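User: Structure please.
Assistant: Input sequence and predicted structure:
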Amino acid sequence: MSDVMWGGPPVSTGGDETGEGGRPPLTGLRVVELAHVMAGPVCGRMLADMGADVVKVERVDGGDDSRRFVPPTISGESAAFMMLNRNKRGVAVDLKMEAGREAILRLIDRADVVVENFRSGTMEKLGLGYETLSTRNPGLIYCEISGFGRTGPLAPLGGFDLIAQGYSGLMSVTGEGPGRPPVKCGPPLTDITAGILGAMGVLAAFVHRLRTGRGQRVDTSLFEAGVTQTYWQAAIALATGDSPGPLGSAHPLSAPYQAFETSDGWITVGASSQASWERLPEVVGLPHLREDERFRENSDRMANLDALLALLTPKFREDSTRLWLTRLEEAGIPAGPVASVGDMLAHPQTRARGMVREVEHAVAGTVETLGFPVKFSATPATITTGAPVLGQHTREVLGELDYTSEEVDAMILAGAVVAWDDPRTGS
């Protein structure tokens, strides 16, 4: 691993996401997560990291589908599930049984927020739709994250990141260039973005409730999450009537701004501002390019991008990643390595920003997870617990809802709920 790419020893950070501070900003907010796999759980995770008490409700027959997204596992537990569901309490309830549904209704009556991401109509069939719940709890914020939103001709369809990336235009601009197969963005971009948009919507609705006492429905989708990611490409299409295509790592509006191959790897170069462009020709040993009319302004460089790349590409292949990053940094030109995920996780900047944390899991013990990406100076986010084992907090949560131990036992025997008994404590 190059010391220029990753210079310096790892930086150790401890405590909360900022080191010192008060309670997380959403402390006291009560959230019921009736969600599975990704978009809804991302929303719940964001709220939980900011201090909300998020109770994740899972099916009794195996729980969230992401528990089966394996390999890899840690002590038999899905690493994928653990990544999305840390900081939450977990209950397992059969919502089709009257006793199970009544328990969840009692939980929601005392909640501030519900997050769900099932196909349109599912919650209504279970008697858990917004109209029903808001009548019981007028202050309830009800966040729905679906494939295409609750209105429009595609509303009845289910939601999957791959499908949303296609519908939203993302796959038409992702890939190496014309004539090549369409490429999905590696991470499930629409799932993750929809979860973040859902959390943003919940917070805005919470501000409204603080002012008025009234809750409301928050409706977003994977489709809209994908559309939101097309700002530059949509600007081009709206202005010209022409849909841009894939450009590999290049920028649709600025150049040179892309990845270049070196003698031993790849680097990214962001010489897109006029000032940084004017320094680049000297660095790459082609000083005459500054005076070349084809490349004088950004519009010129975009119009003659193929010619510019034909000159720059072989130059970058002449030397190593380390040497190029050193030269570009000294010249004040934005540049960086194309890092692997493993290299990113080990980087001192990642560690210094608290973006890798340790939590305790009931079965797997100490596990690493990603940190919270927003730092608060007065109310830092905290990551305190690992993802719940199926039904880990069923007894605890039902007890808070005034169920007696005998009533909980009866519900377990009837199959209305599942509770996990920690073998280390016998609880």
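The mean pLDDT is 93.
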